[in-house]
From TrEMBL:
GO terms assigned for molecular function: lyase activity
Signal peptide: none
Reactions catalysed: glyoxal + H2O = glycolate + H(+)
Tagged with keyword Lyase: yes
Function: Displays glyoxalase activity, catalyzing the conversion of glyoxal to glycolate.
Taxonomic lineage from the root: Bacteria, Pseudomonadati, Pseudomonadota, Gammaproteobacteria, Pseudomonadales
Protein name per UniProt: Glyoxalase
Keyword vocabulary terms for this entry: Lyase
Similarity comment: Belongs to the peptidase C56 family.
The keyword Repeat belongs to this UniProt entry's keyword annotation: no
Entries under CDD domains matching the protein: GATase1_ES1
Length: 219
């Protein structure tokens, strides 16, 4: 029986949305493992828009759901339509969109809040005891989703790790090719582009994370 996995995206592009390589590697690995995938994103405006060529902020507005649809090839739903009963697991790729659109971690740090629709969707998986995978900066949301004491990694960035610790998470340093698992909470995290110097390096940990999340659907 194919496992059904929900993937929440945060826009399109590392600086203001979902990290495209991380998102595509995730979708590819899930497909290779025979999982059925549905992408979701919140139907909200982006915090801002960044020119990915120059790195400058642009004077325009974009919608997180509309931009995320680029990665999902149009097959995406509003995260309000994410019903946990229809899925076996949840995965969030990284990118600044997680810290700017799915939450305000980029501006508020340890005092951040998670976008309400996203938080409700994530908490539903926790309440149902279903596995969750977070990569790159997405574990910054872990303490808000799982509560204090949650074990996770963003790699080895001390400032970010300190913010996670301040929020109540237990941060474990981790190599790009490895994962950190909170067995009690069925949470699997990997650093991805918090550490990766190449797409192959990012894939080494993401593939391991996806594989473990799928394994945990049998537990």
């Amino acid at each position: 029986m194919s496992k059904k996995v929900a993937v929440i995206l945060s826009g399109c592009g590392v600086y203001d949305g979902a990290e495209i390589h991380e998102s595509v590697i995730t979708l590819l690995r899930l497909d290779q493992r025979g999982a059925v995938v549905q992408c979701f994103a919140p139907n909200v405006p982006q915090l801002h828009v960044v020119d990915h060529y120059s790195g400058d902020e642009m004077d325009e507005t974009r919608n997180v759901l509309v931009e995320s649809a680029r990665i999902a090839r149009g097959k995406i739903k509003d995260v309000k339509e994410l019903h946990v009963a229809e899925f076996d697991a949840l995965i969030l790729p990284g990118g600044f969109g997680v810290a700017k659109n799915l939450s305000d971690f980029a501006t508020s740090g340890a005092n951040c809040t998670v976008q309400p629709d996203v938080l409700a969707a994530c908490k539903a998986f926790v309440d149902a005891g279903k596995p969750v995978g977070l990569m790159c900066i997405a574990p910054a949301l872990a303490a808000k989703i799982f509560g204090a004491g949650v074990v996770c990694t963003i790699g080895s960035d001390h400032d970010t790790a300190a913010a996670l610790t301040q929020m109540g998470a237990e941060h474990h340093e981790c190599e790009v090719s490895d994962i950190v698992e909170d067995e009690q909470r069925k949470l699997v995290t990997t650093p991805a582009y918090m550490l990766a110097q190449s797409i192959a390096e990012a894939a080494s940990g993401i593939n391991k994370m996806v594989d473990r999340v799928l394994e945990l659907t049998h537990h």
